[in-house]
Design brief:
The protein is of the alpha/beta class. The protein folds into 3 domains: 22-215, Rossmann fold; 224-416, 3-Layer(aba) Sandwich (Rossmann fold); 441-535, GMP Synthetase, Chain A, domain 3, CATH 3.30.300.10. The chain is built from 14 helices and 18 strands. The protein has helices at 36-45, 102-111, 204-215, 224-239, 253-266, 284-296, 306-313, 319-344, 362-369, 387-391, 404-413, 418-421, 441-460, 513-526, and strands at 25-30, 49-54, 68-71, 97-100, 118-131, 150-161, 168-173, 181-184, 189-192, 244-248, 270-276, 300-304, 353-357, 394-396, 469-483, 486-499, 507-508, 530-535. The strands form 3 sheets. It has a 9-stranded mixed sheet. The protein has a 5-stranded parallel sheet with strand order 12-11-10-13-14, sandwiched between helices. Strands 15, 16, 17 and 18 form a 4-stranded mixed sheet that branches. α4 (224-239) packs across α5 (253-266) and α5 (253-266) packs across α11. The chain is globular. It starts with 24 loop residues before the first strand and ends in a 13-residue tail after the last strand. The structure holds adenosine-5'-triphosphate, xanthosine-5'-monophosphate, glutamine and magnesium ion. Glutamine binds at residues 33, 73-77, 101-102, 156-159. One of its GO terms (molecular function) is ATP binding. This is GMP synthase [glutamine-hydrolyzing]. Pathway: Purine metabolism; GMP biosynthesis; GMP from XMP (L-Gln route): step 1/1.
Length: 548
């Protein structure tokens, strides 16, 4: 393990003890396919650690030695002028390589001396893959081991290979592709035209597992169980004997899991801070403090900054302005609190705070290194990243390599209750972005109360785990109603509930009508200021999950 004291280099600090040096690792090179992250998911599901890097990655700059490499698909055509090409050095590593779709075309291009014959002939959707046995080439059949000889796969390509390079043999065909899968005669280089990473390819998982475990000889030891110990050791090595860490903890699953790991690693030298920004859910701050303390032994400081936040939000109606105000104020409050902690702990024997814990997940990392470049800003998601510049703290991100479902599995292993682990995500700017228009104390009261009833009824109906995220939004319009023979002129609550796996796309949830009826009646009866409930039936895209 490396000595922590020498590592003062902000941001790169976490990289000093890379997970890829602790596990057998498959490298996935991303050529910009919309499915690249799915390849990563499937390899991880097979129990093998893998990392996704842009296809422009130079092998000499890699800080680990992969056991195998996968080349992803791509929106490009291999013959385009500006088509991306892989560093030829990957073929000199003498490790197994698998090309998928564009990856296949790239392999043919490289082995065809940087040229290949392509025709435009698209194949999109299901196809029947017929597998050939090639008994004379010992490694040829390993990719399709235990796969039915005739199996359904998913195709998505417009370019069609007319020939394959010398030294390659066909191991599978479809009706339209004579080269649906090929292999080098002399080395473990495989290429397939179909997409094994999508669930429509029925035996796709087996193909990827065969590649990672049988062909690359990776150990299937990527389990959250093994991760805990390694990660705790890694954190200790980074923080050292006396270093202290501060972390913003919201009660959401990411920051809670990160906090529990940190607490296990360094005990009381970890300081968890929850900022009450005045727009948290009803009773949330007290509940989170209670649960983290009693269940997980984390001493959470709750900083009540609600007056500061609500003061700054006064008169503001623009969604982006709200987000910026909350993000900036958060930084100020957090910074003040860290200084206070340093003061309070100066005689404790622990060192000053040098590190900031963040709950960054792998999808955020993938997005930021994407070959396609950053996507257009739809909304400025609040995060604590801005703290870094001002605070000169080193960043520790124990979940940086994990997907959300891995974080949840980790949480369960760490003894965190199902209630916390399966909590719906809650955005940093909280209900301020669920109150359309100005955020006033009275609007906060209405939105909070309605949301509380909504979630309570969802839980009572046993639907909480079926729904990925649900919340109530308060609309800035009033409508006419009649209650107890009297005219009312009050506000509207919009209920939102979505199902999604990655929060990038989402579908609205189909409630049983009886549940909606009960929710509607309770909110109208119990929340003063509301006389109408509507249900949001928009998917993402074209809508987003939050209303602002
Ligand atoms: N009120 C808060 N007090 C302290 N930290 C916060 C607060 N709200 C958000 N954060 C910080 O911002 C980060 C990003 O928020 P985000 O909502 O994405 O993650 P989370 O709250 O940990 O989990 P989830 O996505 O399940 O809500 C959190 O991990 C946490 O570090
Ligand atoms: O921590 C966060 N800070 C934010 O500023 C923020 N904005 C949206 N979200 C959450 O992101 C997911 C996708 O939301 P959208 O479809 O509205 O963009 C959903 O889960 C949203 O709740 C946020 N989370
Ligand atoms: N999905 C892909 O990788 C497609 C590769 C290439 N653009 C084609 O159309 O064939
Ligand atoms: Mg949250």
């Amino acid at each position: 393990m490396a000595e922590p004291q020498q590592k003062k280099n902000k941001l790169t600090l976490d990289a000093q003890v890379k997970i890829s040096t602790l596990y057998d690792t498959i490298l996935i090179l991303d050529f910009g396919s919309q499915y690249s992250h799915l390849i990563t998911r499937r390899i991880r599901e097979a129990g093998v650690y893998c990392e996704l890097l842009p296809c422009t990655q130079k092998i000499k700059d890699l800080d680990f030695v992969p056991k195998g490499i996968i080349l992803s698909g791509s929106p490009y055509s291999i013959t385009d002028q500006d088509a991306p090409h892989v560093d030829p050095a990957i073929f000199e590593l003498n490790i197994p390589i698998l090309g998928i779709c564009y990856g296949l075309q790239e392999i043919c291009y490289v082995f065809g001396n940087n040229s290949t014959e392509l025709a435009r002939k698209s194949e999109y959707g299901f196809a029947k893959l017929e597998i050939n046995d090639l008994a004379e080439i010992p490694h040829a059949n390993a990719l399709f081991e235990s796969v039915e000889k005739s199996t359904q796969v998913w195709m998505s390509h417009g370019d069609h290979l007319d020939t394959i390079p010398e030294g390659f043999r066909v191991i599978a065909t479809t009706e339209s592709s004579a080269y649906a899968a090929i292999v080098s005669e002399t080395r473990p280089v495989y290429a397939i035209q179909f997409h094994p990473e999508v669930t429509h390819s029925i035996e796709g998982k087996t193909v990827l597992r065969n590649f990672a475990i049988n062909i690359c000889a990776c150990s299937a030891n990527w389990t959250m169980d093994s991760f805990i110990d390694k990660e705790i050791e890694r954190i200790r090595a980074i923080v050292g004997e006396t270093g202290s860490v501060v972390g913003a903890v919201s009660g959401g699953v990411d920051s809670t899991v990160a906090a529990v790991l940190m607490k296990r690693a360094i005990g009381d030298r970890f300081h968890a801070v929850l900022v009450d920004n005045g727009v948290m859910r009803l009773n949330e701050c007290e509940q989170v403090k209670e649960t983290l303390g009693s269940q997980l032994g984390i001493n959470l400081r709750v900083v009540d900054a609600s007056d500061i936040f609500l003061g700054k939000l006064k008169g503001v109606t623009d969604p982006e302005k709200k987000r910026k105000i909350i993000g900036n104020t958060f930084i100020e409050v957090f910074e003040t609190e860290s200084h206070k902690i340093d003061e309070e702990c100066k005689n404790s024997g622990a060192g000053k705070i040098e590190f900031l814990l963040q709950g960054t997940l792998y999808p955020d990392v993938i997005e930021s290194i994407s070959f396609k470049g950053p996507s257009a800003t739809i909304k400025s998601h609040h995060n604590v990243g801005g703290l870094l510049e001002d605070m000169r703290l080193n960043l520790i991100e124990p979940l940086r390599e994990l997907f959300k479902d891995e974080v949840r599995a980790l949480g369960t292993l760490l003894g965190i209750s199902d209630e916390l682990v399966w909590r719906h995500p809650f955005p940093g700017p909280g209900i301020a972005i669920r109150i359309l228009g100005e955020v006033t104390p009275d609007q906060v009261r209405i939105a909070r109360h309605a949301d509380y009833i909504y979630i309570e009824e969802i839980k009572k109906a046993g639907l909480y785990r079926k729904i990925s995220q649900a919340f109530a939004a308060l609309l800035p319009v009033r409508s006419v109603g009649v209650m107890g023979d009297m005219r009312t002129y009050e506000q509207v609550i919009a209920l939102r509930a979505v199902e999604t796996t990655d929060f990038m796309t989402a579908d609205w949830f189909e409630f049983p009508a009886s549940v909606l009826k009960r929710i509607s009646s309770r909110i109208i009866n119990e929340v003063e200021g509301v006389n109408r409930i509507v249900y949001d039936v928009s998917s993402k895209p074209p809508s987003t999950i939050e209303w602002e």
